[in-house]
Amino acid sequence: MVIQKNGLPDPKFIRLDGKVASSKGGGAFYIDYRDPWGKRRRKPVGNSPIEALDAWKLQMGIKRGDIEPDPADVPKPETNKGKTIDDAIKDYLVEVKATKGDKTLLQYSRELKWFRSICVKTYVSELNRSDAMDLFAVGRELVTSEGFSLNQKTINRRVIIMLNAMRSQGAVIEMKKGDWPKTIDKKIEVYQPEELSIFFGACDLRNRTIFQTFLNTGFRDREVRFLMDTDINPRVGTASVTAKPAMTFKPKSYEERTVLIPLKLVDLLKQYKRTSHASTLQFPTAAHPTRKFAGGKPDGRFLERCKKIAFKAGLNCGRCTGFHTVYVMRDGVTRRERRPHDCAIGPFCTQWNLHKFRHTFATQHVHDGVDVRSLQKMLGHKHLSTTEKYLEGQRMDKLRDRIENSTLASLL
């Protein structure tokens, strides 16, 4: 290492093993510096102190901008860092589209767009654990347009989607034990028999048939929406979820399945079919009374129907507030507006939703003794652990019986 004198290098002397020595003993001089892109460079500059000093002066002049560097010596910026994050997201979404449903594709697109709005890096190779931790931090601080903060499960899901996407495209992101924040499992909510009795009492034949189908099959919204005549086997009493390529419908995770249904539901479906217009769908949309709309399409307004019936029957909790979207025609242009709502005065109660029929179906079958493996097939769950959450209600009922018959209870 060259000794400095009055702030300038003096190549006549060098430091060896902590001691000052003369450089006349021979050897090569090297100059260390950083290029304009911050990378450290090292190159030989001769064997004499004069050559070394001239090389240092030249490099300092280039650094100040007083001297134009030799084009051959100008290092090129490193551009071969692999795939960009934007390209990686596009490629990953192509894979998702090929293997998962449209709803999943839309969700993944939104979550990865959120990740991209936070991450300022360009290349996949630059990603590391800190980027995942940034998502955790931003997620906790984020407040939605409705005024609600994200719950931890939602944040964790977004981080998982990002990790799966980037790792599949070559990112090396190693998480540590304890990085994942704890979450609280949400209690499974089900409809009570007295609620359902009032609800179905407020239904006409069409609505009663629709929501009895939800309740007695455990099917999801789109699975009921695309239910066809050929999916019902009245002789053995089954309903099936099958792909409908012509209607661009495919079951979630491509899982087709058949569920045993009560024969009373089969009779109800037959009764409704006799009163409805001809269609291969079980619950097609009706023709519009004034507009040129022939109907016969999959009905996408089951949730709206459910909430209207609950409101009509006086089943709203009266505490739900939030926002809903309406479409308004102004100056010949349809505009989307968000308006506040209150379930005490309108059909907006969050306690009434379609997935709650599925929870009720599963929970009641567990209480009636259906084994968890059979229930897994009926629900179309990929993992048994997803189905096992419905066993918690059965455990609580057994615990309740023991508590009521316990020694402590007898002392009350």
Describe the model.
A three-stranded antiparallel beta sheet has the order 1-2-3. A three-stranded antiparallel beta sheet has the order 6-7-8. A two-stranded antiparallel ribbon has the order 4-5. The chain is an alpha+beta fold. Among the domains are: 72 residues, no CATH class; 84 residues. The mean pLDDT is 85. The longest helix is centred in the N-terminal third of the chain and has 17 residues.
Tally of helical runs: 15
Radius of gyration: 34 Å
Strand/helix succession: EEEEEHHHHHHHHEEEHHEEHHHHH
End-to-end separation in angstroms reads: 88 Å
- The main sheet orders its strands as 1-2-3
- In one word, what is the shape? elongated
Question: Helicity, in percent?
Answer: 40-55%
* Nearest-integer average pLDDT: 85
What fraction of the residues are assigned to beta strands by DSSP? 5-15%
Low-confidence stretches: none
Structural class by secondary-structure content = alpha+beta
